Every structure is written in C-alpha cells, then in structure tokens.
Amino acid sequence: MRAVILAIVLAFGVSAANAHEMTPTYPTLVPSHVDGLLKATMQMFNRRADVEYYEVGVFDENFEPVPFVTAYNIFKLDYQSHTSFDIYIRASDRDRAAYICSRSKIRKGSEIRTAVSSKICSKIKK
Amino acid sequence: MFKNKTIRNIATLALGASLTAITFANAEQIPITGTVQSKCIIQVDQPGVFGNPNAYTLTTASADGGRTASTRVDVTLADSYYVTFTHPDSFSSSPSLPDVVTWTGTTQVSTVSDATGMGTYETSKIVNGSQTRYDMTATGSTWFETEVTASLGGSRAFPGGTYTAMVEAECIAK
Asked: Which chain A residue is nearest to residue B174, measuring alpha carbons?
C-alpha cells in the first residue's frame, strides 16, 4: 500500500513540474463593452518551469488565423502563476472562429536538445 | 470580606475569559472556492537528448545514446480531445550545416492510467507525415514517447555545436 501511495506521489510530483493548462475547454463568446465585438475570457496556469512566455491565437476549423485582439499576443506567465485574459473578435467572425489556442514559447538559447512545445486549443461554443 | 472580594475577582476573570473564548470560537471563516471543469493538460516529463552514434546522425534513440522526449497528457473529460504530436523537420538552432538534413520520427504510447479505456490508443493512432494523432476517448493520464532522428545528407559530419529541435504536442478540443 505504501509503495502504491509513494508511486502516485512520485508520479504527480515529478510530472506536475512541467505542465501547461488552459481553460475553459469550450469558451463562450459574449457581447463586449464595444459594439460589434464579442469577448471570450480564458484562464491559463503555467506549471512549466522551462517556459515563461505563451502566445495566443484564434483560428478557424482549418487552423487558418482569424483576426482578434487581446492585451498581449505573447505574454509572460511565470512558473506556477495563473492568468486570465480576454480575447475579442468581430461579431462578423463569430461563425468563422472555431479555436482559441495557446502555445508555449521556448527561448532560442535553451540548452535543451529536443524541447517539447505545447499547444492547447479550446473550441468556441456555437 | 477579603476572601469574598478575591472570589468575586476570580469569577469576573473566569467570565471574561469564557466570553473571550466565545469570541474566538466565532472567529472569521475563510472561504476556499474552486471550479471543477474539463481540461486537457500537457505535461513535459522529460525533454529529449540527442545521441550521436556516428558523424552524420543525431538521434534520441536510447540504443544510440540519446533520450526520447516524454510527454504526459491528462484529460478530465472523455471523448473531447485529440492529441497530436509533430516531430521536427528542422533544427530550431544549430551551427551552419553543409548539407540537407533528413528527418524521421515516431511517437508512441508508453504508459496509460486506464488499460481498458486507453488500450486501443496506439493501434488507433493516425500517422500523417510528421504528425501522429490520438483520439482521447477516456479520462486519465497517457504517457507518450517521441523519438527523432536527423541524418545529414551525403553522410557528411555534423559540425560541432549545440543542436536544438522542437517536438510539438497539441491538445485540441473536439
């Protein structure tokens, strides 16, 4: 029993150090304070010790970019930090916009020989 | 007289102390709130390392002195995500190379937390060029290993220096 608990603790303890998560999985576009713009609010949590910066983007079903506005397309998110950000898209792009994605950005000077770039895409609720 | 006063003082103190205790018993309650929602988490367990079995090959294969990149994906909602791994087709940083590099790579499931629900992940995966896609039909954790090999054209030697390549792990909501 002790061994099982230790294994679980080790599994979570070791892997929890390098995780990228973004919620909600199915965000909803709601009217914003600006006419003709819709807004979705996203949350992110950085548990990747090797990543400080993330890039966000909005894409259609074929992963072609859809115009959007947010405070910073690439933003700094410290290790073990949460952030919440708003994505604004034109109401006319409502049907076209399908995914909101965040991607980890790894520094060019990283010493890691094969780094893993993580990308999470939430699907906009229609 | 003196004795009665002392008793009265002790009683007063005791009453005060008990009132204080009541006050502490009703101390502020600190709320802890949270929301449980579906999500996909990509966890990089171990970045890969290139081995250099001969002058013109860099590989993460452990048999050749490398280390495969290991990624764990946690899914909390069944049948709601695809996970795609894309092995690199270029170095993100390297010394200047004298020839074209040929890339090969594979991704496979190494461990699953639910052998019944995830047992078919490996056989059902779809490989398209450098991409390998898995349909995450069950909740739980899945560990993936990505092996990458880069061969320099004309069997020419890789110049000395640091080489970095990027494996991309994507979790896409269905």
From this structure: A123
Inter-chain touch B167–A115, beta carbons under 8 Å: yes
The CATH number that applies at residue A60 is: 2.60.40.10
pLDDT digits (tens, 9 = 90+) for B123-136: 999 999 999 999 99
- Residue A85 falls within a domain, yes or no? yes
pLDDT tens digits for range B51-105:
999 999 999 999 999 999 999 999 999 999 999 999 999 998 899 999 999 999 9
Neighbours of A98 (CB within 10 A): 19
Between CA A28 and CA B116 the distance in angstroms is: 34
Domains in chain B: boundaries: 40-173
CB atoms within 10 A of CB B47: 24
Report which secondary-structure segment, H or E, holds A123: strand A114-123
B100 vs A86: CA distance, rounded Å: 43
CATH of domain B40-173: 2.60.40
| Among candidates A21, A110, A117 on the partner chain, residue whose Cβ is nearest the Cβ of B41 | A21
Work out the minimum CA distance from B92 to partner chain A, whole angstroms. Answer: 7
Q: B160-171 pLDDT, tens per residue?
A: 988 999 999 999
Most A CBs within 10 A among B92, B163, B171, hence the mutation to make, goes to B171
Per-window interface: A 44-83 vs B, CB < 8 A: 47-48, 50
A50 CA: distance to closest CA in chain B (Å): 10
Per-residue pLDDT at B44 exceeds 80: yes
Q: Which domain holds residue A74?
A: 18-123
Asked if residues B67 and B48 have their Cβ atoms less than 8 Å apart, the reply is yes
Number of domains in chain A: 1
In a domain, A6, yes or no: no
